[in-house]
Amino acid sequence: MSMFKIAANVRTFVESSMENWKTELTSSGESLGNVNIRRGIFQGDNLSPLIFVMCMIPLSLILRKEKVGYEFRGKELKINHLLFMDDLKLFGKNNEKIDSLVKTVHIVSKDIGMEFGIKKCGMLVMKRGKIVECNGIQLPDEETIKSVEEDGYKYLGILELDKIMEGEMKRKFVKEYGRRLKLVLKSKLNGRNKIMAMNTWAVALLRYGAGVLKWTKDEIAAMYRKTRKLMTLYGALHPRSDIHRSYLPREKGGRGLISCEGCIRIEENSLGWYVKNSVEPLLQQVAKTGVIETERCETKENFKKKAIEELEKAWIDKQMYGQ
């Protein structure tokens, strides 16, 4: 069956199944009637996260108007929350202010039909840089947000407590990276497809924490050795194969593998470039603190081009085998 026919059959199936989709509108517990759903956006569609973010903008605007949070730079800027997609972190100087923010979020969420993921919520109280025990916080619907446990909490997939738990996160990344690498190398894919799978599934894992986790040269070198060792073990790389050729693009005569260091450095550069050119007041303050390197950052295209040129020069300057 051709791809056109397959796509047509899928579309017909979706349209026929959508005929039975209905939802009920209610107000103050009173039913206003049923609504037939004729059109919609499926999970996985490119528009789905964009529309979700648009729906969350009112919540962020309401929280900005709250008179609680941390002020700095002569009280010109105030921060009481961080929001990305459905991950929300609230900041308050004491329990009463946190309680006020949580209740605000609860009211807005109830109005737009969202629910708290209580199991994923947690409360952390710190005084003078030290963690203090707390009994959590009570929601209006009598549910309780418990205090964060000693093993930390996750925000945007990164473990945190009083600070980012770099050691634990690095161990998790390295372990998962090795697991994915082995699965790809043990597969029956040909050489080119194995490299593509390693780039998109294994190496890309390191991109997520880049710029947030500070990888040292020794840690990157250890992953680099592990990659070459596993590739040699599973017959994907000759023990005497040239190092530089493995990481050059295929159009340059290489194999196209993305190095661990290259992946991390590209993302660090991109993050620094974004912060450097941001017009958001809070990100401008981040740039001034020096937490993220911004001085030597450049566009992603220029950064990658220079890295490839350096790699290509190092390969060309090498003496050929047998000479």
pLDDT < 50 stretches = 1-15
Task: Quickly count the helices.
Answer: 10
Instruction: Give the N-to-C terminal Cα separation.
Output: 56 Å
Strand ordering within the main sheet: 1-2
Q: Which percent range fits the helix content?
A: 40-55%
| Residue-averaged pLDDT | 84
Number of strands: 12
Q: Compute the CA-based radius of gyration.
A: 25 Å
- Please summarize the sheet with the most strands: 2 strands, antiparallel
Q: Compute the number of structural domains.
A: 3
SSE arrangement:
Layout: H1 3-18, E1 22-27, E2 30-36, H2 47-65, E3 70-72, E4 77-79, E5 81-84, E6 87-90, H3 95-111, E7 125-127, E8 130-132, E9 137-138, E10 144-145, E11 153-155, E12 158-160, H4 166-185, H5 191-209, H6 217-233, H7 243-247, H8 260-276, H9 281-289, H10 300-316
Antiparallel strand pairs: 1-2, 3-4, 5-6, 7-8, 9-10, 11-12
Pfam family, one: RVT_1
InterPro entries: DNA/RNA_pol_sf, RT_dom
How would you explain this protein's 3D organization?
This protein has about 325 residues and is an alpha+beta fold. The protein has helices at about 5-20, 45-65, 95-110, 165-185, 190-210, 215-235, 245, 260-275, 280-290, 300-315; strands spanning about 20-25, 30-35, 70, 75-80, 80-85, 85-90, 125, 130, 135-140, 145, 155, 160. A two-stranded antiparallel sheet has the order 1-2. A two-stranded antiparallel ribbon has the order 3-4. Strands 5-6 form a two-stranded antiparallel sheet. It is globular, with a radius of gyration of 25 Å. The protein starts with a helix and ends in a 7-residue tail after the last helix. It holds the Pfam family RVT_1.
